[in-house]
Design goal:
single chain; alpha+beta; six-stranded mixed β-sheet; 42% strand; globular
Amino acid sequence: MFLTRRSLFSIASLTLGLAATSAWAASQTDEAALAALRALYEAQPQAAELGDRAAAILVFPKIVKAGLVVGAQTGDGVLLIGGKPAAHYNISAASYGLQAGVESFAYALFFMTESSLKYLRESGGWAVGSGPSVVVVDKSAARNFNTTTLTQDVYAFPFGFQGLMAGIGLEGSKISRISP
């Protein structure tokens, strides 16, 4: 196959354009994750204390969940180490049962141990419910713990709910590393 200069230029331009678009999308996700984490810290100061002690924080700034008997949820997030983006992840899940509605929300997962962070990084996709133990913390539970009572590998904070749908949980969710 013979390629002309024009076709090589077109292919190179398309490749650079796709790379720039991907980098822009990643930076948008990074900014959204940092803003979501700041909002969580303002709403729940205990989360900020947890963040100071965490080995890493995986923030999903927007997860969309929809269902009518059969449901699904998905969202992209950023792994923050030392407050800086280190990797990108996707969370997805499917469910079946008595459910109806659409909502969006955010999740912040605080990895308290190096071993739980290693598991996230080295697994080919972490199915929540296997591997490190995860405790979902709501506002009332957050008021009752302090840094001396922390004993679990991962703490999850759901927040920023919009829309209307019954039932939420991480069980059965799969978290996979992505390359935006």
